[in-house]
Amino acid sequence: MERDTHFILGVYEDEDVLLHAVEKVRSNGVKIHEVYTPYPIHGLEVVLGYKRSRLPIAAFLFGMLGTTLAMTMQFYMMSFDWPMIIGGKDYAAFPAFIPVGFEMTVLLAAFGMVGVFMISSNLKPWAQPRIFDIRSTDDKHIMAIDIANNSAMDLEKIKEILKSSGATEINNKSFE
Amino acid sequence: MQVTSSVRQPLVTGGKTYHDVTHDVSRQVEGKPSMLWFLAFLTAAGVLALGSIALIATLWEGIGMWGLNKTVGWAWDITNFVWWVGIGHAGTLISAVLLLFRQKWRTSINRAAEAMTIFAVICAAMFPVIHMGRPWLGAYWALPLPNTFGSLWVNFNSPLLWDVFAISTYFSVSLVFWYIGLIPDFATIRDRATGLRKTIYGALSFGWDGAAKTWMRYESVSLILAGLATPLVLSVHTIVSFDFATSVIPGWHTTIFPPYFVAGAIFSGFAMVLTLMIVTRKVYKLEDYITIGHIELMNIVIIITGSIVGIAYITEFFIAWYSGVEAEQYAFINRATGPYWWAYWSMMTCNVISPQLFWIKKIRTSIVATFILSIVVNIGMWFERFVIIVTSLHRDYLPSSWAMFYPTWADVGVYLFTFGLFFTLFFLFAKFFPVINMAEVKAVLKSSSEKVKK
User: Can you list the alpha helix ranges (DSSP code H) found in B246-339?
Assistant: First the structure.
């Protein structure tokens, strides 16, 4: 797809150095493609300027759908389709329908949200990720800078900014 | 960015670096299994095979193979069901509730505890399914499926049906929560591997690349799943307790059941986590990750929940007397002094007295004492369910139908089958999956390890 893409990678060892580095690199006008880290770093999404994830909204909507489905199903089956008096309860025994309503809310909220997460992050068993540096799932933080997005900047200047921000290594990376 | 008080105990000892974490956990997956693992696995698989004889006999002949009779229509099956579900609760408590409370010590134990949850729930769910007698028709009795009788639907007023929804939701949400946590660690193993292993773990890792944006979403998903799993886990054992509490059997018909069952579930679950983790940390040499500090904290949870359970036992007795209901009073006197007195007092000793030993620091920081007491607690919790179920049933309103329950070989065998299944699955997990959540341990390493990485 991006045959000619060419990346500069800054390798960082410490999460706090990385956070300051991201701020510094961005304030120097360099556009960061993405940062790859072996574990979640709190505040990284803030310094990278990412908008808050809307996954909680998805979870809420799927949860509402779960409640609605569960309640509709129970009232339809118990109160309309085949009404029966069981245990002296009303045909529409609302309190007795709450447990199943709750469980289906949780089920749909969880599965719906995780499904949206999988799709939005392109997580699937046959996905072939672009690995910039294999150590990014072990102990190194990798800052990838796409040269095509920074055509106004001098390459050496970018490398200098990376170096002064605390990168321990600076590498080039191209994908076939 | 994270600030931790200097008086806190380090969560990871031995001056581990990030790479050490990767190495120490991944090498268990990559290396050849030890003799000890093979021995343990074969024992578990042997128990599974032996137990399956009883299972097949039960399915072939019907549940008449069990020691149930007209008076005691529920005994070992439901006892084992409640016991296994209860054990499962600790995994969710560790991964979800401790996440919401920002307890960082959960990171070293949550993976294995969640695995235990999933396997325990599988074992638990087997019992109601087997008790259907003809489980291949069971979907019609348990799920609201259209059928040729009307459709005649399942009864949504029944706690037994609520259980179907609660247990299946609990199982599937726990599985998803567990798997989301596994994805980054599978990616770590993928990036260390070559050949077939790279392909397999590559598929398991779902193409994870560790991008900051994905991590942000991952954190968001984890938090919401924890928020959903917390009321879910409380609801599951609450609904399990409704199976009894909504009936009119003396000894079952009490409002204290939901909180008391949930506390008991966490109590037995933490005991099982301790049993498993003490062995795992030793065999896999993970003493720097699962420290004495972790064991001590889990023992404190055991003291708290054990005390809640103890208070619940005493409250039940008091309320039985205070209610003035003769049948209720008799049910409790019969528990303590009737033909099942030995089960009652085993329960009291194991659940109320033995965890109080953990008030002594020497005992709660001793591996051997913790290991023994963790098994004692689980024996006690099995007896608790047995006492509640069998002693309340065996002397019902009609003295002419009073009876005793004696388990048959098939009762014992089916219970053994679930033991075999549980340990077989756990040993397979321990060999092929990373037993510690590497990414989460790395995330707390800088603020909470003994020697932070420069």
Answer: 257-283, 292-323, 326-337
Q: CA dihedral defined by A40, A44, A45, A48, rounded to 10 degrees? A: -140
Q: What percent of chain B stands above pLDDT 70?
A: 97
Vertex B28 angle, CA B277 and B122, to 5°? 50
The pLDDT > 90 percentage for chain A reads 30
Task: Please provide residue B134's backbone torsions phi and psi, each rounded to the nearest 5 degrees.
Answer: -120, 75
Q: Taking a C-beta distance cutoff of 8 angstroms, is the pair B239, B159 a contact? A: yes
**Does residue B129 fall inside a structural domain?**
yes
| Predicted pLDDT of residue A116 | 94
Q: What is the pLDDT of residues B322-344, one digit of tens each?
A: 989 888 899 999 999 989 999 99
* Cβ pair B209:A114 closer than 8 A: no
- The lowest-confidence range among A106-115, B142-151, B169-178 is B142-151
At residue A1, the pLDDT reads 39
CB nearest to B217's CB, from A38, A55, A134: A55
Q: What is the distance in angstroms between the Cα of B133 and the nearest Cα belonging to chain A?
A: 24
User: Is A9's pLDDT higher than 90?
Assistant: no
Instruction: Decide if the complex's ipTM is over 0.90.
Output: yes
Helices (H), B156-291: 159-192, 195-204, 212-245, 257-283
- Determine, for residues B188 and A131 on separate chains, whether the beta-carbon distance falls below 8 Å: no
Domains and CATH numbers, chain A: 6-51+133-174 (3.30.70), 55-120 (no CATH)
Query: Nearest residue of B to residue A16 by CA position?
Result: B1
B13 assigned to some structural domain: no
Chain A, residues 151-170, CB within 8 A of chain B, namely none
pTM over 0.80: yes
Torsion sign across C-alpha atoms B205, B211, B212, B217: negative
d(CA B425, CA B116): 9
Residue whose token pair is 């049993």:
B275
Q: Do the Cβ atoms of A139 and B17 come within 8 Å? A: yes
| Residues of A (113-152) whose Cβ lies below 8 Å from B | 113-114, 117-118, 120-131, 134-139
Within-domain flag for B2? no
